[in-house]
Amino acid sequence: MRIKTLLFIAFSISYVFANGQNKIEKQITNDIYNDYQLSVSGNKMIWYQDSLEYTNLMYWDGSKKIKLVDKQDLKADKSPAKISGNYITWAQKVNGNYEIMLYDGQTIKQITSNDYDDIRPDLYENRIVWQSYNAVTNKSNVLYYNGTTSIQINSDTLQAYYPCISKNKIAFTAGSTNGYGIFLYENGSAKLISNYSNDFSTGTKGEPMVSDNIVAWGGQTNEQKWTIFYHDNTTHQVDAAYSSVDVRDVYLNNILFEGENADKSYNAFLYDGAITQITTDGESGPNSMYGDSIYYETSGNIFLYTKAGGSKAITQSGNDYHSCYKGGVLAWTRDINDKDDIFILVDAQDITAPILSAASVDGITATNAVAHITANEAGTAYYAVQLASITAPTAAAIKDGTGFLAAGNAPVTATVEKSINIAGLSFSSSYSFYTIVVDGASNTSEIKKVEFTTITSSISSTAGEEILTIWPNPAHGIVQINVKVSAQYKIFNMLGIVVKSGYLDEHQSTLDISNLAKGNYFIRTIQKGTTITKKLMIE
To answer: Do 444 and 476 fall into the same domain?
Structure first.
C-alpha cells in the first residue's frame, strides 16, 4: 500500500546581475491546478488556483503557501484579487451575489452584503474601492470603503467602472452613451480630469491607473490616434500617436505602457517626461514597474530593463509570462504541460527551508516497509518510525533518532526520490513514519508524516492448516477455500492493498479470482476471533 502526500517540487536556477547580486529562481507551485492572476506586494503575493468548477485563493506570506479561500466562486476571470501589505481583498459569491471580502493578516471580513454584484476590488492598505453592479436597473457604481464605512463616489447619473486606489487618490471611469471619461476622487469629492470627446469614442471605456502622484490612462487625440494622458494637478497629453495604448503600470511620475502600431505589432514604452522605447521586436508586453526596474516579457521569457543598464534576460524557459514586482519578490507564471505554475526570484543567500515535495510508504509486509521521500534541494533526510498511537515527535527528536522503533538518516539529492528500508516491525500494527530534510545551510523542512499498517503474519501451525485450506494453490480462474465456520475474508496484494473481500460459507466455498493479475497474494480469514493468513499464488 502506497500512501502519498504531495505538496510541490521546487528547484532553483542562479543568476548573477550586473551589480554582482546573486539571485535564485524558485518554483512555488507544482500541482494539478492552474495558478494565475498574480498580485504582489513586497515579498508577499496572492494568486487564484483552479479547482474544478471552483477557485482557491492562495497566499504566499514570504516563506510559505496559505490557502485563504477553498473551493469558492471568486469571479476570478474578471475580478482579480489584490494585495497591499498585510491586506488582501477579493470578490466572492455569497448567497447568489458577489461580495467584497477583506483579509487583514489574521481574519477574513465580509465588507458588503447586498443584492448587487460587487466586483473588481482594489485596495491601499485596508481601504478598498470596487465596482457594484445592479442587474435589475442595469446600473454600475463605484464604492469606497475607508476602513469603517462604505460610500458611493460617482454621480447617480453616470455609469462607473474600473476603480483603482493609491494612498488618498481614487481614479475610475464613468460616463454614459455620450462617452466616457476619467474621474479623480480625493478630499471627499470626484471631478472629471479628462475630455469626453478626446479620451474615448462612444461606448468605449478605458481603464485608468493611479500612483501616489498621478493618474494615467490611454486616450484618443483629436486626430483619433491613441496616446498617453496623465493628471498631476492638471491634465497632460503626451505627444505621441499609436493605434492603441494600454497603460500597464505607474510609479510616482513614471508611466509604463504598451503601444500598438497599425501593423498590429506592439512594444513596451516608458514615459518619465519623455518617451523611451524599451523593446523593438513588435511582440513584447510590459508587465510591471517599481523604482527604476521594469519587467517585460517577450518570446516567453522575462526581461529586466533599467535606463542605466538596458535589458537583461531573467528567465530562459520560453514559457514565462505575467511577471509582477513591487519592491520585494519578482514573481511570474510558467506554462508547464498546459498549466501555469508560480515562480519567484529571491536572493541567493539560503535562508529558505527545504521542502519535502513527496513522502510515501509502500512494500508493506508483516515486518517490513519501504519509505520514499523527495525534497526540492539536496541535504540529509532524517526519519523515525513509531506506533501511530504515540504523540508526534519534534524535528529535533527525529534528528536525534533516540527512542524510536526505527530511525536513521540518508543523503538526498534535489528532486530525486530516496528510498529507505524499514525493518523490525510487528505484524498487523499501525505505525507513523516521520521525516525531515536539513539542507547545507542547516535549514530544516517541515515534518512530514505517513501512516501505514503492516499486514497480518501467516500462520503455519497445524491448527491453522485445519481451519483454512486453499486448493489449488497456485490457482487460476477459481480457487476452493475450506473453513470450519462461516467467515469474513480479505485478499491482499504484496503492497498490502485489499483487492477482493467478502464472506465464506461454512466448510467449502468457490471464489472467482479471474480478475486478479498473476502474482503472490495473502488471503486472511477471521473465524471465531482467530485470524488466519495464508499465501495464495495466482498463475
So the answer is: no
